[in-house]
């Protein structure tokens, strides 16, 4: 396996090998399973659900997703390249979480999330979950490298399988949450139209779709194209 | 120049097509209902098909109607007591269930009347819009206005149609009115005594009603009136403040109950010489939140309660309470309409039924009459409705046959003669009517024959009566629905023209850009770090956003809550902006080839976007707008509860901010000129006048100038002088600014050269293009300032905050777009401003229901009523935000085609021409095109949904807003076109002069 993974020194000196498709499948699949189990199964076990108890359900999801994402992306990082020590990866990932939460919560407010205090806890929990899905993987793998962040989030041009594995699910979650807000003004008077339930569902759905796409691409793209795709 | 001419031609064609198509469609879709002119007179007592040809020749006294009609009048006096906004549910319960116990307890007397059958209560369903004035019109004329009538007569005053009050006046009744002054507006000069209160201060729930009740003592004692109208506004105010569940509701009902008791004791129980009828009615209901205007059950559930001593008292026994609520006769079994009140009252009071009334008699109120009289009353009502049917279906065969042979057989199989104009469905409706009519008249005729021979049995009477009732119910509902034939040809023509317009305009825009990009490619071979990839992302967002918005209009919820869609679109755009700003490399080569940190650029742009987002969020939170969540707290409601002075203080702050920023904009450092100073002075002067105006309106005592209050005329004069000054300033700026705009700039772009220097400089750059662009900006700044100041004057105090926020948002957007490292295409900038304008529209408290139009503001500065002027003011107030952003497009600029410092080549020349064309044309036609997309989409929705439940309450009002937005956009485009054409011609002229001077100068130099 190792000789097939071509090491490639890129313009900015970032050393990157393509993670194997199997590794991506198993690790990213783990993240997806953790999210689904965390949002749906575990709360159901305790007699909770996202619609009636959004905060509790999101907490369950966080409890499962956060460690899984940390482990999965750290492992992916180790498999592909290793210019930084592991503890720094995890450290920068965990440091990025509060920052990501604040930024995402502010964006949610700007998009129209309710500002009243009774929703503050829900907004923060949702933002924390979003930041685990969107910011954390990038922070673990990219650290504080501005050009890499810029390439992935401002240009959406991931290079290589590892960056695709960060970029596509993150964008999937963001777009999913964006789409998830559509039904909120409808007058169906369903409980799931409440903030942030439909957005959580949307984000989870988008994230899963993103995971699938990034894994599929890793399987489908020919190996030599994989690392050259920009 | 051929291309230029073609573009202009296509643009004009596109805009014109849109307007023409809209007019055609509206005429086809909302036909003005054919209405009968004139007033009902004694002829209506002599049913026949002849239209009144001998009008005015025979003027018989009212007595002859009485005699001719054969229906004795049951009452000599009428008291109409309107309890504004009272849902019938609160008194009569709903669906067989009584109202909550505390509400029953609040109205003990009324409920005892209902229980003893001295009163009959109806759920009188009101037609939308459930707002006081149209409802009062319906309750007196019996006509349900067509939708366009409602729109056109939004604040017309006197009711000119045939109506009950006029009929009573003809009959010589003397009238007294106490309460809502809407009555006085509707029926000027009809009331011999009146005390009008207005509904202006919604917070007052006590005074308004006290002002009515305080006259009650003397009016009840007086015997000189025949009609007494009491209109209590208190309950409506209670609803607006706290909704249905407000703790003030029960005490208010108790107050109303006391009034009913007083009237009953004084006039009905004790007075024997004059039979008096008391009608307690409400004009409309209210939602749980206390709002009204729409067509929901809660809003439409109005009350009609007839109380009199002469009702049969039904076996004289009190029914058990439980039976009463489920009893068929009292309430829900006869679903009645608000307009049913009109024929009922007319027949009971012995006056002809108003001509355009579509109501049906309420039969329970006529049971005390003899069978003959009952049938006669029903017959008269049937004939009156028949006249309406005749007018509505002029081509119908069966109506003609019915006319030629009223009681003879109608050959129902003869519809083969029906001309092609009549759709089968419609003819079926009319035939159905004819059939019922024939049946009823036949039964009636048979009954009369038997009655003459004293052979009558009750069953025959019942059969005839039921046939009539069936006929009346059917016809009334059919007429109320108002399914007048839509003109298909007009609809199709209008639709096609409207569809063509945005296609044409978008095609023009696209071809403009195609030409531009082709030329650009010639010039610069695509560099490595091109943003082209990202521009396609913008296209995606733009096209996707427009499609999502247009598609969302198919859902009634998204129409009601359109503010969320707009806000979401603007927020999404902001994300695009942020993304774009973050794409800027941190270290970049600037134009001088030196490396510099670009971080500053990122910070400025992200900051600008943050300001845009913050303003947008505040605007959305300022007014909740919409329908479903309108009752939830928002900033405006909160500020109003904190203190009366707070909104006024904010208004002062907004005024100060608008003035300061205007002056700063106009006197930007490099462009000091006498004219600019003059304009700034004018703006400051008008700001001062507005300041005094606000003070005069604030009811703050003492006022700024120490006196207790201002003379009455002062606010009007102040407002007028502000209109004048702002108008003159705008005209002055548009006409003169192009003459003084500096055309030549020193290299550092900071200081303008003076004419003497201009001559010495060599040609460089594109003086025409940059000149036109900067002139448009200067003019735009002045116009924006004028518009904002005007809005601070016209809008309610609470809206001054949003006006300021809109200005900040616009300026932040312009700062963002004009930042030198941005290279957004102009079409994208125009789109962004268009969406922000739409978003701000809702931030100013507007919604897609007619209830939010600020009619009060439409009288500022007007001393006498003028529909045209107040309509214009209402339009200016409502479309403040879209128009502000349309003017704001003058501040935009497209990324310049090439470095202005390089020498001109032919290719540059062509390129710069295309650039100029873009600046001149795109902000003009793209808003119209975008508006056209929405217009076409919503037209399609309206056509498809014309049988939808919400068509009158949701889709039609929105269509009026869409039409008004079309007018607003077209006016904006026209203004932009005129100003830009004028600026271009003036700048061209000046450049020619300069060129000549320069030539002279050069030749002079050569000679020397």
Automatic annotation (TrEMBL), chain A:
<keyword id="KW-0812">Transmembrane</keyword>
<feature type="transmembrane region" description="Helical">
    <location>
        <begin position="51"/>
        <end position="78"/>
    </location>
</feature>
<dbReference type="GO" id="GO:0005789">
    <property type="term" value="C:endoplasmic reticulum membrane"/>
</dbReference>
<keyword id="KW-0256">Endoplasmic reticulum</keyword>
<dbReference type="InterPro" id="IPR009580">
    <property type="entry name" value="GPI_biosynthesis_protein_Pig-F"/>
</dbReference>
<dbReference type="Pfam" id="PF06699">
    <property type="entry name" value="PIG-F"/>
</dbReference>
<feature type="transmembrane region" description="Helical">
    <location>
        <begin position="90"/>
        <end position="112"/>
    </location>
</feature>
<dbReference type="GO" id="GO:0006506">
    <property type="term" value="P:GPI anchor biosynthetic process"/>
</dbReference>
<feature type="transmembrane region" description="Helical">
    <location>
        <begin position="21"/>
        <end position="39"/>
    </location>
</feature>
<keyword id="KW-0337">GPI-anchor biosynthesis</keyword>
<keyword id="KW-1133">Transmembrane helix</keyword>
<protein>
    <recommendedName>
        <fullName>Glycosylphosphatidylinositol anchor biosynthesis protein 11</fullName>
    </recommendedName>
</protein>
<feature type="transmembrane region" description="Helical">
    <location>
        <begin position="165"/>
        <end position="184"/>
    </location>
</feature>
<comment type="pathway">
    <text>Glycolipid biosynthesis; glycosylphosphatidylinositol-anchor biosynthesis.</text>
</comment>
<feature type="transmembrane region" description="Helical">
    <location>
        <begin position="204"/>
        <end position="221"/>
    </location>
</feature>
<feature type="transmembrane region" description="Helical">
    <location>
        <begin position="124"/>
        <end position="144"/>
    </location>
</feature>
<keyword id="KW-0472">Membrane</keyword>
UniProtKB/TrEMBL annotation, chain B:
<comment type="pathway">
    <text>Glycolipid biosynthesis; glycosylphosphatidylinositol-anchor biosynthesis.</text>
</comment>
<keyword id="KW-0325">Glycoprotein</keyword>
<feature type="domain" description="GPI ethanolamine phosphate transferase 2 C-terminal">
    <location>
        <begin position="546"/>
        <end position="735"/>
    </location>
</feature>
<feature type="transmembrane region" description="Helical">
    <location>
        <begin position="7"/>
        <end position="30"/>
    </location>
</feature>
<keyword id="KW-0472">Membrane</keyword>
<dbReference type="InterPro" id="IPR037674">
    <property type="entry name" value="PIG-G_N"/>
</dbReference>
<dbReference type="InterPro" id="IPR039527">
    <property type="entry name" value="PIGG/GPI7"/>
</dbReference>
<dbReference type="GO" id="GO:0006506">
    <property type="term" value="P:GPI anchor biosynthetic process"/>
</dbReference>
<feature type="transmembrane region" description="Helical">
    <location>
        <begin position="674"/>
        <end position="694"/>
    </location>
</feature>
<dbReference type="InterPro" id="IPR002591">
    <property type="entry name" value="Phosphodiest/P_Trfase"/>
</dbReference>
<feature type="transmembrane region" description="Helical">
    <location>
        <begin position="872"/>
        <end position="893"/>
    </location>
</feature>
<feature type="transmembrane region" description="Helical">
    <location>
        <begin position="717"/>
        <end position="740"/>
    </location>
</feature>
<feature type="transmembrane region" description="Helical">
    <location>
        <begin position="531"/>
        <end position="552"/>
    </location>
</feature>
<dbReference type="Pfam" id="PF19316">
    <property type="entry name" value="PIGO_PIGG"/>
</dbReference>
<dbReference type="GO" id="GO:0051267">
    <property type="term" value="F:CP2 mannose-ethanolamine phosphotransferase activity"/>
</dbReference>
<keyword id="KW-0808">Transferase</keyword>
<keyword id="KW-0337">GPI-anchor biosynthesis</keyword>
<feature type="domain" description="GPI ethanolamine phosphate transferase 2 C-terminal">
    <location>
        <begin position="793"/>
        <end position="970"/>
    </location>
</feature>
<feature type="transmembrane region" description="Helical">
    <location>
        <begin position="489"/>
        <end position="510"/>
    </location>
</feature>
<dbReference type="InterPro" id="IPR017850">
    <property type="entry name" value="Alkaline_phosphatase_core_sf"/>
</dbReference>
<feature type="transmembrane region" description="Helical">
    <location>
        <begin position="648"/>
        <end position="667"/>
    </location>
</feature>
<keyword id="KW-1133">Transmembrane helix</keyword>
């Amino acid at each position: 396996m190792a000789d097939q993974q071509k090491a490639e020194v890129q313009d900015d000196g970032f050393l990157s090998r393509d993670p194997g498709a199997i590794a991506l499948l198993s690790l990213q699949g783990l993240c997806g399973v953790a999210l689904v189990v965390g949002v749906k199964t575990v709360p159901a076990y305790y007699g909770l659900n996202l619609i009636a108890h959004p905060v509790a359900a999101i907490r369950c999801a966080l409890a499962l997703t956060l460690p899984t994402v940390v482990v999965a992306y750290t492992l992916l990082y180790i498999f592909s390249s290793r210019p930084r020590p592991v503890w720094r990866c995890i450290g920068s990932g965990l440091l990025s979480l509060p920052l990501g939460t604040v930024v995402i919560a502010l964006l949610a407010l700007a998009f129209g999330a309710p500002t009243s205090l009774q929703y503050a806890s829900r907004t923060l929990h949702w933002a924390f979950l979003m930041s685990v899905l969107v910011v954390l993987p990038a922070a673990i793998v990219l650290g504080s490298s501005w050009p890499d962040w810029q390439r992935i989030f401002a240009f959406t041009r991931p290079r290589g399988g590892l960056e695709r594995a960060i970029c596509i699910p993150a964008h999937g979650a963001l777009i999913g949450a964006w789409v998830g807000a559509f039904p909120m003004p409808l007058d169906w008077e369903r409980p799931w139209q409440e903030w942030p339930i439909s957005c959580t569902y949307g984000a989870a759905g988008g994230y899963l779709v993103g995971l699938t796409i990034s894994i599929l691409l890793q399987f489908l793209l020919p190996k030599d194209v994989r690392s050259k795709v920009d | 120049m051929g291309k230029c001419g073609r573009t202009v031609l296509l643009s004009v064609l596109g805009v014109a097509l849109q307007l023409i198509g809209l007019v055609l469609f509206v005429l086809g879709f909302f036909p003005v209902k054919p209405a009968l002119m004139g007033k009902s007179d004694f002829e209506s007592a002599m049913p026949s098909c002849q239209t009144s040809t001998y009008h005015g020749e025979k003027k018989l006294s009212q007595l002859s109607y009485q005699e001719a009609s054969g229906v004795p009048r049951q009452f000599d006096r009428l008291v109409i007591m309107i309890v504004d906004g009272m849902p019938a549910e609160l008194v009569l319960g709903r669906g067989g269930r009584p109202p909550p116990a505390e509400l029953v307890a609040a109205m003990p007397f009324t409920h005892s009347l209902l229980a003893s059958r001295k009163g009959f209560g109806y759920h009188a369903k009101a037609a939308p819009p459930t707002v006081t004035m149209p409802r009062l019109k319906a309750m007196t004329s019996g006509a349900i206005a067509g939708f366009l009538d409602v729109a056109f007569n939004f604040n017309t005053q006197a009711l000119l149609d045939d109506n009950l009050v006029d009929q009573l006046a003809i009959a010589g009744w003397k009238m007294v009115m106490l309460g809502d002054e809407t009555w006085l507006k509707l029926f000027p000069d009809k009331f011999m005594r009146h005390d009008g209160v207005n509904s202006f201060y919604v917070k007052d729930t006590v005074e308004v009603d006290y002002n009515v009740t305080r006259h009650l003592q003397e009016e009840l004692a007086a015997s000189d009136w025949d009609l007494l109208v009491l209109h209590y506004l208190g309950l409506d105010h209670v609803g607006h403040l706290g909704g249905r569940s407000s703790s003030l509701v029960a005490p208010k009902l108790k107050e109303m109950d006391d009034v009913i008791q007083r009237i009953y004791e004084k006039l009905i129980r004790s007075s024997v010489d004059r039979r008096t009828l008391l009608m307690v009615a409400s004009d409309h209901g209210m939602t749980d939140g206390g709002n009204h205007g729409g067509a929901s059950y809660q809003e439409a559930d109005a009350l009609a309660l007839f109380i009199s001593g002469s009702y049969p008292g039904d076996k004289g026994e009190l029914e058990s309470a439980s039976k009463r609520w489920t009893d068929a006769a009292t309430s829900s079994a006869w679903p009645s309409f608000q307009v049913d009140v009109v024929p009922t009252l007319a027949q009971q009071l012995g006056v002809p039924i108003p001509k355009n009334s579509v109501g049906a008699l309420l039969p329970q109120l006529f049971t005390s009459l003899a069978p003959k009289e009952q049938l006669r009353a029903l017959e008269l009502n049937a004939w009156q409705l028949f006249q309406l049917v005749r007018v509505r279906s002029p081509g119908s065969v069966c109506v003609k046959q019915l006319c030629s042979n009223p009681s003879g057989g109608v050959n129902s199989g003869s519809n083969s003669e029906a001309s092609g104009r009549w759709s089968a469905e419609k003819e079926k409706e009319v035939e159905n009517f004819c059939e019922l009519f024939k049946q009823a008249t036949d039964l009636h005729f048979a009954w009369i024959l038997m009655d003459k021979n004293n052979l009558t049995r009750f069953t025959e009477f019942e059969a005839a009566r039921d046939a009539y009732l069936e006929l009346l119910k059917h016809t009334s509902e059919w007429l109320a629905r108002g399914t007048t034939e839509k003109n298909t040809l007009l609809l199709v023509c209008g639709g096609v023209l409207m569809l063509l317009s945005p296609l044409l305009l978008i095609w023009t825009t696209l071809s403009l850009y195609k030409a531009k990009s082709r030329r650009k490619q010639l010039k610069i071979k695509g560099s490595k770090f091109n943003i082209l990839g990202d521009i396609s992302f913008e296209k995606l967002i733009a096209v996707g956003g427009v499609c999502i918005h247009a598609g969302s209009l198919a859902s009634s919820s998204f129409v009601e809550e359109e503010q969320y869609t707009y806000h979401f679109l603007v927020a999404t755009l902001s994300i695009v902006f942020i993304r774009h700003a973050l794409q800027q490399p941190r270290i970049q080569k600037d134009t001088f080839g030196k490396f510099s940190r670009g971080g500053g650029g990122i910070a400025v742009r992200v900051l600008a976007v943050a300001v845009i987002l913050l303003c947008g969020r505040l605007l959305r939170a300022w007014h909740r707008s919409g329908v479903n969540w309108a009752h939830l707290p928002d900033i405006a409601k909160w500020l109003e509860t904190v203190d009366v002075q707070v909104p006024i203080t904010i208004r002062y702050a907004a005024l100060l901010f608008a003035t300061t920023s205007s002056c700063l904009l106009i006197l930007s450092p490099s462009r000091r000129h006498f004219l600019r100073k003059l304009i700034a002075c004018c703006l400051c002067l008008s700001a001062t006048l507005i300041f005094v105006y606000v003070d005069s309106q604030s009811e703050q005592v003492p006022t700024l100038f120490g006196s207790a209050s201002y003379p009455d005329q002062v606010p009007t004069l102040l407002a007028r002088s502000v209109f004048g000054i702002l108008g003159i300033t705008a005209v002055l700026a548009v006409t003169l600014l192009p003459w003084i705009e500096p055309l030549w700039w020193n290299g550092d772009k900071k200081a303008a050269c003076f004419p003497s220097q201009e001559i010495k400089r060599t040609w460089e750059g594109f003086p025409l293009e940059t000149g036109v662009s900067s002139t448009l900006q200067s003019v735009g700044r002045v116009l924006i300032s004028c518009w904002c100041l005007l809005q601070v004057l016209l809008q309610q105090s609470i809206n001054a905050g949003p006006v300021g926020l809109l200005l900040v948002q616009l300026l932040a957007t312009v700062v963002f777009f004009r930042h030198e490292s941005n290279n957004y295409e102009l079409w994208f900038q125009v789109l962004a401003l268009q969406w922000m304008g739409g978003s701000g529209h809702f931030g100013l408290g507007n919604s897609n229901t007619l209830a939010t139009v600020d009619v009060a503001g439409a009288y500022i500065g007007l001393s006498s009523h003028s529909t045209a002027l107040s309509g214009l003011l209402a339009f200016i107030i409502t479309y403040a935000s879209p128009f502000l952003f349309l003017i704001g497009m003058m501040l935009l600029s497209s990324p310049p085609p090439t470095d202005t410092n390089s020498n001109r080549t032919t290719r540059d020349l062509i390129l710069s021409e295309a650039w100029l064309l873009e600046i001149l044309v795109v902000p003009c036609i793209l808003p119209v095109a975008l508006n056209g997309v929405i217009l076409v989409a919503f037209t399609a929705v309206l056509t498809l949904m014309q049988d939808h439940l919400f068509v009158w309450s949701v889709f039609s009002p929105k269509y009026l807003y869409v039409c008004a937005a079309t007018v607003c956009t077209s006016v904006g485009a026209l203004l932009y076109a005129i100003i830009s054409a004028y600026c271009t011609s003036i700048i061209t002229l000046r450049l020619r002069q300069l060129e000549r001077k320069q030539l002279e100068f050069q030749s002079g130099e050569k000679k020397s």
